[in-house]
Design goal:
By secondary structure, the protein is of the alpha+beta class. Helices cover 25% and strands 18% of the residues.
């Protein structure tokens, strides 16, 4: 099995780490259907937010900028 990599920080997600899987609904050119992205679910030492939370914040900022 291929090791999971975080879509935010690009580092490996180790077996003992908690992670989140996001299902992406984008039409695939090859007809595979949905795609998945994995993110670290817990913040690293010295960080306030996890990779998943940072991704969510960036998505919210992008939505607000687009809506403005």
């Amino acid at each position: 099995m291929m090791a999971k990599r975080c879509a935010y920080c690009q580092s490996a997600i180790l077996s003992e780490q908690r992670w989140v899987r996001q299902k992406i609904y984008e039409p695939a050119l090859d007809g595979r259907g949905a795609d998945y992205r994995c993110y670290h679910a817990e913040a690293f030492a010295g960080e306030e937010l996890s990779c998943w939370e940072k991704h969510q914040v960036e998505q919210e900022i992008a939505r607000r900028v687009y809506a403005a």
